[in-house]
TrEMBL record:
<protein>
    <submittedName>
        <fullName>Sodium/proton antiporter, CPA1 family</fullName>
    </submittedName>
</protein>
<feature type="transmembrane region" description="Helical">
    <location>
        <begin position="158"/>
        <end position="178"/>
    </location>
</feature>
<dbReference type="InterPro" id="IPR006153">
    <property type="entry name" value="Cation/H_exchanger_TM"/>
</dbReference>
<keyword id="KW-0406">Ion transport</keyword>
<feature type="transmembrane region" description="Helical">
    <location>
        <begin position="233"/>
        <end position="260"/>
    </location>
</feature>
<keyword id="KW-0812">Transmembrane</keyword>
<keyword id="KW-0472">Membrane</keyword>
<feature type="transmembrane region" description="Helical">
    <location>
        <begin position="190"/>
        <end position="213"/>
    </location>
</feature>
<feature type="domain" description="Cation/H+ exchanger transmembrane">
    <location>
        <begin position="19"/>
        <end position="390"/>
    </location>
</feature>
<dbReference type="InterPro" id="IPR038770">
    <property type="entry name" value="Na+/solute_symporter_sf"/>
</dbReference>
<feature type="transmembrane region" description="Helical">
    <location>
        <begin position="281"/>
        <end position="300"/>
    </location>
</feature>
<dbReference type="Pfam" id="PF00999">
    <property type="entry name" value="Na_H_Exchanger"/>
</dbReference>
<feature type="transmembrane region" description="Helical">
    <location>
        <begin position="306"/>
        <end position="326"/>
    </location>
</feature>
<dbReference type="GO" id="GO:1902600">
    <property type="term" value="P:proton transmembrane transport"/>
</dbReference>
<feature type="transmembrane region" description="Helical">
    <location>
        <begin position="92"/>
        <end position="112"/>
    </location>
</feature>
<keyword id="KW-0050">Antiport</keyword>
<keyword id="KW-1003">Cell membrane</keyword>
Amino acid sequence: MNYQNLAILSLFVFAYSLIAGRADRTPINGALVYTLCGLLLGAHGLGLLELSVDSAGMRALAELTLALVLFTDAAHADLGVLRQTIRVPRRLLLVGLPLTIVLGVVVGAFLFDGLSLFEVAVLATMLAPTDAALGKAVVTNTAVPPYIRQGLSAESGLNDGICVPILFVFLALASGAVTPEASKGLALMLVLKELGLGLLVGLGLTLLMAYLLRAASGCGWVTETWGQVPVLAMALGCFSAAQWLGGSGFIAAFSGGLLFGWLARAEKEPLLTAAEGTGDTLALLTWVAFGAGVVGNYLHLLSWQVFWYAVLSLTVVRMLPVFLCLAGVGSSTSEKLFIGWFGPRGLASIVFGVIVLNEGLPGGGTIAVTVVCTILLSVIAHGLTANSFVRRLAAGEPSRLARSETDRHDR
């Protein structure tokens, strides 16, 4: 064990925990601070953190963090609002997500001459899902209309699980493991397996564990200290069981969180506290590791094509499909632009990046540096604009959809 790394990370966690509330009210907070500190303390900065982030370790850390964030965010969801405005996340997932991948392929094919069409499709799919952890500052801010918060939360909770089978199909095509003719059957099989098993495991395991927790609590068997553990174990259990059985752990974590939030709606807040704290700590460690062990290793590969793809991925490639797919739902132009802008890239793209690197594609280096650049720009841009854009949105005239929600809530 490297005690120097452990000491520095422990002190950093302690220091940030003291100022977290104050930092949340400034543009410099969360993942931006973690990543920049990791870069500063790592081998390409002061050299104090000697993090050798191998692919397996980075993937495991990012996956567990994402699973906890998805479960706890879903558990906090207002199902009444989500049910009334379900067309927003439905359009974002069923129309906006495919359009984002297609537009990403078009832009990538224009910018990257050295990548095959299927490698460009892999890149576009890796950067299509949004990050629930990076978007937390927006989806937890009550100044944002509830339909936007619930829509963005549902989108980020489900789009990474939807993208997994699509990514595997494009990977198989890019590596030559399957032919385009055979890819249709493979795609259907993967989608049904990933989504079906993910939902089945997430809902089934959560239902069982929530029933056992309530029964044990009713008997007085759960102590105050151990009462902080069950939700944490539930979230990680849903994720890992689904992954073990061949389903999507991300779908399992999000669907399990939704069900738990509904089953335990009267007492869920104290039960979720420990899991949220653990998720925040894991997120801190993930972003520090990303800054210290990943960013510096790829910055020297940066090119103008990579930079412009990253910029376009965060703007036109994301925002145009969102604007188009939300036509006619009752949102104002400013609300559509807000939803389109707050599609940060983070943990899911890190996980996908590790998967792709292990495949050894000819264009793997270009794909990796583009993903790292996009995530880094997202951390900076979305971190700096979250609070100010929320204030601007709150100061504007609410849309017809936002007003109808407010009226319904008042009644």
